[in-house]
Amino acid sequence: MIVFYFAGINMNALIRNNLESTKSWDNWRGTFDEVKDYLIDAFQKGVLDFEASIKDEFLKSSLSEIVRYLCFPIPEKRGHKKNQLINGNQYELERFISMLSLLHLKARYNIIHN
């Protein structure tokens, strides 16, 4: 949803736009392991497309970091790195809620003081 709010397109569409049509989920008939490197490459390009839609450098870097954590195409590697290191739920969203809350406060501060 972060990508959609800022770029007007969802992350799956950005990945699909950067993925060879023969490797897309509509056409691919091989295994996930065979296509995952292509998905990761398309994801990285999609994140760059997302970043290009954000003018503010602070927002761009903060939001792209969050998107990389939440949308990484390999589910086992998705989630915040600290959650991945501990024995818990790597998909917990509490860290992201805190990151977005802090980002909101910083953005409000910048608007008020600039």
TrEMBL record:
It comes from the Bacteria. This is Uncharacterized protein.
